[in-house]
Specification:
By secondary structure, the chain is an alpha/beta fold. Helix content is about 35%, strand content about 20%. The strands form 2 sheets. The chain has a 6-stranded parallel beta sheet with strand order 5-2-1-6-7-8, sandwiched between helices. The protein has a two-stranded antiparallel ribbon with strand order 3-4. The longest helix has 16 residues, at about 140-155.
């Protein structure tokens, strides 16, 4: 009997980190545009499954941080839709750093709002190549930026 070769692809996810005072507009744009492009996106709740964004909008997460740690090594991209000050606030949680470390070690690009988030936190120690860091706060059109990401990440997903 011949061996059967699995044709199932290992699919990673785009992880959008979500917590209190994060930028809900950016999180929604990234989640919507990447999902419309067919990418598997998971919103990761830092403290439970719901958080209130910077402008008061309550958004729910697909995964808890603990659940996301189990799949972080398969991430095809990680998005941190928050200010540098918020990154400093979550910098004390070793699980956040562990998730980012696992994802970046796999070559997952890191999308952040401002370069200050790297300089002023432990993120500067992540094993991420400079070309894998994208600053979305510098983009005039966030939707166009998200669509460009979707095109470049579609190859990583499969």
């Amino acid at each position: 009997m011949a061996a059967v070769k699995s044709t199932t692809k290992r699919v990673g996810h785009v992880l959008i980190i979500w917590g209190d005072n994060f930028d809900e507009a950016a999180a929604a744009v990234f989640a919507t545009e990447l999902r419309q492009a067919g990418l598997p996106v998971k919103v990761v709740g830092l403290v439970g499954r719901q958080a209130i964004g910077l402008y008061g909008l309550l958004l729910g997460a697909d995964l808890t941080l603990g659940d996301a740690l189990l799949v972080a090594h398969q991430a095809i991209g990680v998005i941190l839709p928050c200010t540098a000050a918020t990154v400093q606030r979550i910098d004390n949680d070793p699980r956040v750093y562990e998730l980012l470390q696992q994802a970046c070690a796999n070559g997952a690009p890191l999308i952040i709002q401002h370069a200050d988030a790297l300089r002023e936190s432990r993120l500067k120690h992540l094993p991420v190549l400079q070309e894998n860091i994208n600053i979305y706060g510098e983009q005039a059109d966030l939707i166009a930026f998200a669509r460009t990401l979707a095109i470049s990440w579609q190859n990583r997903a499969g």
